[in-house]
Amino acid sequence: MSDDPADEFGEYAHEEILQALVRSLLTSADLDQLCDDADLPQLTHDDDTPVTVTSARVYRDAGVMTLDRGVWLELSDGSVFGLTVTIARRPRHEVTLRRR
């Protein structure tokens, strides 16, 4: 891993950082705990066990030749969801990347 965040994220830093953030947020705790924290109902299987995120992987485009980024979520109930980070407008001024 490079010491310079600009080297790591390159030209599409906004998209790649948001993509990594979504993946991290959705895998930082069990799905039922995340739902509790957001005051949302929990997804459960027929036997009342919570549905879990079994896989969360990032992708570079939405499969339609765009520069959009996103995250594919696979859940333990067999469902698969794609969350896309769509570019609507780029920043008007230069943005600096830094680590805390």
Task: Explain what the structure shows.
The chain is α+β, with helices and mostly antiparallel strands. 27% of the residues lie in helices and 20% in strands. It has a 3-stranded antiparallel beta sheet, covered by helices on one side. The longest helix has 15 residues, at 13-27. The protein is elongated and about 50 Å long. The model has no long low-confidence stretch (mean pLDDT 83).
Given the helix and strand composition, which structural class is it? alpha+beta
C-alpha-based Rg, rounded: 16 Å
Sheet having the most strands: 3 strands, antiparallel
Distance between the termini: 16 Å
Helical amount: 25-40%
Strand tally = 3
How many helix segments?
3
Helices and strands, in order, run as HHHEEE
- % residues in beta strands: 15-25%
Which residue ranges are poorly predicted, with pLDDT under 50 across at least 5 consecutive positions? Answer: none
Mean of residue pLDDT values:
83
Shape: elongated
Strand order of the largest sheet: 1-2-3
